[in-house]
Amino acid sequence: MARIVVIGAGMGGMAAAARLATVGHTVVLCEAAPTHGGMVGSFEREGFRFDTGPTLLTLPAVYRDLMLKTGRTRLEDEVELRPVDPGSVHVLPDGARLALANASLAKVESALTTALGDGAGARWGGMLGRGRAVWEATRRPLLEEPLPDHPAVLHRDPYVPERRGLLARPPRTLADVGRRELRDPRLTALLDEYALRFGLDPERAPAALTWLPYLEQSFGVWYVTGGMRALADAVLERCRARRVDLRFGTPVRKVLVEKGTNGADGAGGQRVTGVLLADGTELDADVVVDNRPPQASAARNPRLPGRFTLLLALRGARPTDVPHRTVVHAPDRADELDALFGPVPSLCDRPTLQLLRPDDATLAPEGHETATLTVTVPPHGTLDWTDPQRVSAYADAVLAHAVASVPEAADLADRLLWRHARTPADTAAETGAPGGSVPPPSLPGAGGAFLAPGNADPRTGLFHVGGAAHPGGGLARVGMSATVVAGLVGTP
């Protein structure tokens, strides 16, 4: 039985703590904040409640496995899961509108053909088929196993392009896939959105990112009643049930190590001995699992964008014909990419945005509704997100863009009781994420430039978990990160 200290009660830290305690280790979890969840936060005011981080779940099997392995219960026994139907409604750059079914590739292809003309569905479906090949080729080494010490196998992009002649140059980026294989700016906009939601430039992100739309449209998107915070609460309760020693308001100043002296650590190696708390207390430990971003992650992508979120408390009940998720795609792709990734970061007045209007009576006082608008924006530091004038002006612009673009959103301004804007500065202050950036998923290709740092630290007994470590950001991958770390630590 090892003495283990977990630093950080984000989803990865809590999931790792629950798994390690279940197999017999003594686990202390230290969280600097007064609450749990990390980026899976919430905001409450006057009876309205909003998620401030992830809002939808893909691959719920990851958390089904967590609940089964740590308590022999089903995830559905802990939270109410509902498939989002339709999976998404899209307003394309030319104003065309279409609804894409949840977890049905055939229905997605049919909808694209109907809305965009003959061949559109087939081109999208062909691309998703090649995304499926990426998923099958990289699923184990990229998601389910520790990152190899020499991950050359993941440095090459496994995306195999559409056959278009023996001398055709294979696409290297997601944007290449759009130009050469989709050949329609409206389809390209659908593909770009998967990169933009994680703050990635489609002109640089490898073609392998096509496995993300394949994954979502094949396996579906799910909503947790009460918001994603309910999932964080369920994982916390599992930690309590496994007798994890939870210590909130307990920041860790540093990880303590001693130099190795024999073959176990290797010449000049270091072994973890515990942690030093901010109040000067030392906690002894055989193993430390760190849910904070490893230093390598900041160097990997120092200018990742963050998210601007506008929380809307609305007077009156939610109309019955309103979709759960609507995506409005920027009418000017070049303007949006230049604002996010150009030499001088700026704000796009008509960006790609997501409008969420969940059919969930638990989120608002009886007879009222919540809605959330989310936009990818430059991080805090490249722009000053503490400037109240900038925040207010951009909130006006984003709301006006939604109202003008989505017929069902025309009533948002008229029904507005109050609004609350959250910026990358808020994310940075609450989670410590540099600039308030959102960790992207690990991706193969580009010589390993898009791989998150590995879970095992060079210092013996130290492991990294969470969105900034292998296999990267997103609720499902964070849960997978905890599974990998628990396997590396092993049983007593």
TrEMBL record:
Gene3D superfamilies: FAD/NAD(P)-binding domain
Coiled coil: none
Positions of the UniProt region annotated as Disordered: 426-453
Family annotation (InterPro entries): Amino_oxidase, FAD/NAD-bd_sf
GO terms assigned for molecular function: oxidoreductase activity
Pfam families per record: Amino_oxidase
Amine oxidase domain residues: 11-452
Name of the protein this chain belongs to: FAD-dependent oxidoreductase
Organism annotation: Streptacidiphilus fuscans
